[in-house]
């Protein structure tokens, strides 16, 4: 079995990341999905939350996603994200703005994204 799998993160605008990783943990619709090389085939939803990219036995990078879909094969994990940003760029002001917009639009999904932003900031 290979030591890495290819991880791709794609937004509607562009390919955000494509690199070999030891492991990636994706916030799946029914719970977190840990993907290692050799993982079985899977297609599922991604809930708003944080993707953890592992290297050297620890988390090397964290990326906030607002939801989307994931496709996993034994060699690759592709996440099609509605929107994505490095966790380091996420701020309380962004979460507050998302909450305000969701309340104005009566948007339940927007409220879920705002809440996930707050949870991500708390960790």
Could you walk me through the main structural features you see in this protein, from its secondary elements to its overall organization?
It is a single chain. The protein has 123 residues and is an alpha+beta fold. Helix content is 24%, strand content 47%. It contains 2 helices and 10 strands. The protein has helices at residues 92-105, 108-122; strands at 5-10, 15-21, 23-28, 31-35, 42-46, 49-55, 58-65, 68-72, 76-81, 84-86. The protein is elongated, with a radius of gyration of 15 Å. The termini are far apart. The model has no long low-confidence stretch (mean pLDDT 95).
Structural class: alpha+beta
Strand content: over 45%
Biggest sheet character: 5 strands, mixed
Report the radius of gyration as a whole number of Å. 15 Å
Query: Could you tell me the number of beta strands?
Result: 10
Instruction: Strand order, main sheet: write it out.
Output: 2-1-9-8-5
- Low-confidence runs: none
Number of helices: 2
What proportion of the residues is helical, as a percent range? 10-25%
The geometry reads as elongated
Average pLDDT works out at: 95
Order of H and E elements = EEEEEEEEEEHH
Cα(first) to Cα(last) distance is: 33 Å
